[in-house]
Amino acid sequence: MNDLLYATLSNVSLLLQKKEVSATELTKLCLERMQATEAKLGAMLTIDDEGALAQAKVLDEQGPDPNKPLWGVPVTVKDVILTKGLTTTAGSRMLEHFVPPYDAFVVERLRQAGAVILGKANMDEFAMGSTTENSAYHAAHNPWDLNKVPGGSSGGSAVSVASGQCYASLGTDTGGSIRQPAALCGCVGMKPTYGRVSRYGVIAYGSSLDQVGPLARSVADCARVLAVIAGHDHRDATSSPLDVPDYQKALASGQLKGVRFGLPKEFYGEGLASDVASACESTLKLLLEAGARRVDVSLAHTHAAIATYYIIAMAEASSNLARYDGVRYGYRAQAITDLESLYVKSRSEGFGQEVRRRIMLGAFVLSSGYYDAYYKKAAQVRRIIRDEYLAALEHCDVLLCPVSPVTAWPLGEHANDPLKMYLMDAYTLSLNLAGLPGLSLPCAKTASGMPVGMQIIGKAFSEAQLLALGQAMETILPHIGHPSL
Amino acid sequence: MSEEAKIGPQEVRHMAELSRLEVSSEEEGTFASQFAEILGYMDVLQEVDVRGIEPLYSPVSHEAWTREDQAKAVRSHAEILANAPKADEQYFIVPKIV
């Protein structure tokens, strides 16, 4: 049974198409797995047993459809993505009872592709956090060590994939929120180019940074899910009109010989834990043995990226979250007699501490007297950082970097030190400033048994290349197996 | 920046007011020291020379397009009001304004 639980999406899809297992059987298997593991893991905020089984039943009645790439495949969806008729909280008390009247674009696509949506994955409130401890409901736990964080903010998505609860999950990545939990939990995660996937129906955090992407057990599985969710959507003005290449087909073209991997020296210096550094070295060694080439590059303004990112993300958050006013949807404070107090009390009671912190800092950096010094300046540095990425990518085919400076850390470790927590995102957030795609994949396990991930980064809209290379890397990298639960 | 951005309880109250948020007196101190530390860290940007650099507000590279301005019934009245904390069959209800 473990074989089926931990199979790749691509493999279960074959079994489903050949009717060796039915959508209902597989859905039941995953729901039972959730039942058995959720008390320990806390990966989910809403489990939709009834809806999932009904969906599976309909699919089984219709029979397998080779044109539906996710036919019968049980998946989870981060709770920041709207699902029609299914509670969507963004991990916040503010939206505890919010039932969306429509599906996000990516959910429409999942349904059209025949996926079975099992429920909504746990996350840091409004995607603000790197551990999933900021969930207003409960923390999620790393399946490799239950005392450790799974990363965040798409922590529930990563846990559900890594623990055999589902075969893929959709997350969102504003500053590393797909890649980092994927790395800490030992799965594959992709942050697509900004604009590759529509944000329609995704609860906004940092609108110029947010992007939806897949978490799965293999690069090929990520490619399959990305192919389903990528594409133009007129309801998101930032959605790209560029055609979506055939990612599945591209996978076959992946080879490492002669590929130039750029190593930004700023990502390999101070702050990188020794066990992660040695995993990165082993990875590089394997790549070189397979015929790849190493190119040393520099992203000189990396030291300014964290400040730049947080100023922009907080500014956008303060603006986006102004919509929660206790009037049209969401939490409303009780026994209020005037409108101003209704806004203030509803927001103060409905938002958790980290969200309030970011809204206030965001309002501050946008405020009169500070706008130029903080927000405008950050936007200028953002261009420098983006241009440095583009320049570095002129000298190599992809960049190769660590994802997190450390492996998963104990729950509660930095909970009272927000700045320390922000510094943990050093290797992921500059990618979002540049709007580029990144693929995080497991490359090793440390002596203490925790997964380490590395990311490859390419030019805008180079997802096909990243996936092809990622798959080639997967064949030479050690397989980390799955956690025992 | 750090010279200007001295963060004490008064500044925290101002930031809260801008954000339509309320901060308890216990939280005021915590936020003040956290904000001072975070904004102090942001000073790293002061050292970056940005003369002549245009701000980059979005990584989008395609041209924005316009759509026909047509009225469409995308969602029903009932659907829109369904999540309201307080509504009748027609309107959102808020405390009396005038």
Could you characterize what this model shows?
The complex is a heterodimer of chains A (485) and B (98). Chain A is α/β, with parallel strands linked by helices and 485 residues long. Chain A is 39% helix and 12% strand. Chain A has an 11-stranded mixed β-sheet, with helices on both faces. The mean pLDDT of chain A is 97. Chain B has a domain of 39 residues: Histone, subunit A. Chain B has 3 helices and no strands. At the A-B interface, helix 11, helix 12, helix 13, helix 14 and helix 15 of A face helix 1 and helix 2 of B.
Question: What secondary-structure arrangement, pairings included, does this model have?
Answer:
The complex is a heterodimer of chains A (485) and B (98).
Chain A: H1 2-5, H2 9-17, H3 23-41, E1 44-47, H4 49-62, E2 74-78, H5 105-112, E3 116-121, H6 155-162, E4 168-172, H7 179-185, E5 188-191, E6 212-216, H8 219-229, H9 247-251, E7 260-264, H10 274-289, E8 293-297, H11 305-320, H12 339-350, H13 353-365, H14 372-392, E9 398-402, H15 418-423, H16 429-434, E10 438-445, E11 451-457, H17 463-476
Parallel strand pairs in A: 2-3, 2-4, 7-8, 7-9
Antiparallel strand pairs in A: 1-3, 4-6, 5-6, 5-10, 9-11, 10-11
Helix pairs in contact in A: 3-4, 8-17, 11-13, 11-14
Chain B: H1 9-18, H2 25-41, H3 77-81
Helix pairs in contact in B: 1-2
Task: Briefly characterize the structure.
Chain A is of the alpha/beta class. Chain A contains 17 helices and 11 strands.
CATH architecture of the largest domain in chain A, please? Alpha-Beta Complex
Number of extended strands of chain B: 0
Characterize the biggest β-sheet of chain B: none
Runs of chain B in which pLDDT lies below 50 for 5 or more consecutive residues are: none
Helix proportion range of chain A: 25-40%
What average pLDDT do the residues of chain B reach? 91
Please trace the helix and strand order of chain B, writing H or E for each element: HHH
Output the radius of gyration of chain A: 21 Å
Secondary-structure-based class of chain A equals: alpha/beta
Count of beta strands of chain A: 11
- The level 1 CATH classification of the domain at 9-47 in chain B is Mainly Alpha
What fraction of the residues of chain B are assigned to beta strands by DSSP?
Answer: under 5%
